[in-house]
Structure to design on (423 residues):
């Protein structure tokens, strides 16, 4: 996990150290400038005031001339040529002569103009000891504290990082939580991290058991259903072979056969959902139009006694390589929903290239119901519950499993349009 929690903590501390360094360096620069200009300027002004007080008592008082301060006096009316060349163009105020390496204060008074020079090297030395050196010491302290804090934080999050790496390596289908068993945890995994590891170990075990139980039930139930379905199909075939059957009994046996085939298709669909996601469903070539015609004939029985017209429109042959039984289940569910919730009007099934559209003029759905229609056990027809509310959720799961897509468009009181995209 190159961008896990330790990496983020490291980045946070580096950014913090860089920002602190920038702030300290900026502060050091400001202090250095204040020392070189503000402090020296203040000292030179005090020296100038002292000199003018001495000059007021004695006009012959010489300008300051010490180890660090060199002074020149240009009395009123005297030519500037007697001054050093670098001082002649200076106006009253504080100046920095980089070439000469001097800081100069020019103080104008009625008696004349006083030039006080201070070596820039002395100002820089003072700035180093009072500004740069403290900054370096503060930076070293910041880096040291940041490193110690980072190491301490890394030790705190190391158990969580170890736990995250183990969980990231799990197979979602078969989560192996054996490494998180309490007796196998490293000694450094303590406190909340150990509690979390124990909870994940128990949860992974329960999830594995639940998934295995669900798959076993679906597989076993589907397998066991095949035996009675085979008996029903064989018995109905034998009964239909009797030429003495009445038309009514013959229709009943044909309905039994059709329902048996539908049950076999549903069993195959459940087996498909019970298989692993990376196992491709069994496919064979068939025509989508044939599936739609068959399911429309079966759904027409649900419209007995209703003023509803069922139309099937097929735009030519629509060959497809997939599971025909899954297609039977999907189309059958869409048609049964349309028939159950349509009391008058029409139901139209159109088969085109890559899609099947089922449109009805039934009760329709509100926007809220449409947003929940794929939830298990939800029914859009209030007070008209005619099923368990599992048809559309199963349809969507089958479509996702086969790489198809189902969309719904509905208006309350107008009707619903379901579109199966299989291309």
């Amino acid at each position: 996990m190159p961008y896990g929690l330790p990496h983020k903590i490291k980045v946070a501390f580096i950014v913090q150290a860089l920002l602190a360094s920038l702030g300290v360096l900026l502060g050091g620069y400001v202090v250095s400038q204040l020392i070189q200009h503000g402090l020296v300027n203040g000292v030179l002004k005090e020296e100038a005031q002292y000199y003018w007080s001495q000059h007021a008592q004695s006009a012959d008082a010489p300008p300051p001339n010490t180890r660090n301060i060199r002074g020149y006096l240009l009395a009123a009316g005297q030519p500037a040529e007697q001054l050093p060349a670098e001082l002649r163009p200076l106006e009253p105020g504080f100046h920095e002569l980089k070439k000469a390496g001097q800081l100069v204060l020019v103080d104008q008074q009625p008696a004349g103009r006083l030039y006080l020079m201070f070596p820039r090297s002395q100002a820089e030395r003072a700035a180093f000891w009072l500004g740069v050196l403290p900054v370096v010491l503060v930076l070293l302290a910041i880096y040291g504290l940041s490193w110690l804090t980072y190491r301490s934080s890394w030790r705190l999050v190391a158990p969580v990082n170890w736990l995250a790496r183990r969980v990231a390596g799990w197979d979602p289908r078969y989560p192996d939580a054996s490494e998180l068993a309490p007796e196998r945890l490293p000694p450094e995994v303590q406190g909340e991290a150990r509690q979390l590891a124990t909870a994940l170990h128990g949860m992974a075990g329960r999830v594995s058991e639940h998934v295995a139980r669900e798959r076993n039930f679906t597989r076993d139930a589907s397998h066991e259903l095949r035996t009675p379905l085979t008996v029903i199909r064989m018995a109905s075939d034998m009964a239909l072979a009797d030429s003495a059957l009445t038309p009514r009994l013959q229709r009943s046996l044909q309905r039994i056969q059709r329902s048996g085939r539908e049950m076999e298709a549903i069993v195959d669909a459940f087996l498909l959902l019970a298989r692993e996601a990376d196992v491709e469903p069994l496919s064979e070539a068939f025509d989508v139009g044939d599936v739609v015609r068959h399911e429309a004939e079966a759904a027409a029985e649900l419209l007995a006694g209703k003023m509803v017209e069922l139309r099937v429109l097929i735009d030519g042959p629509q060959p497809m390589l997939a599971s025909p039984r899954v297609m039977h289940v999907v189309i059958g569910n869409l048609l049964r929903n349309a028939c159950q919730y349509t009391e008058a009007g029409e139901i139209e099934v159109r088969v085109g290239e890559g899609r099947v559209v089922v449109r009805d003029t039934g009760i329709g759905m509100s926007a809220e119901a449409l947003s929940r229609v794929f939830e298990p056990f939800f029914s859009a027809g209030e007070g008209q519950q005619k099923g368990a509310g599992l048809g559309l959720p199963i349809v969507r799961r089958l479509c996702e499993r086969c790489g198809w897509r189902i969309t719904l468009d509905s208006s309350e009181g107008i009707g619903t349009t379901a579109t199966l995209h299989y291309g």
The mean pLDDT is 80. The first strand starts at residue 70 and ends at 75.
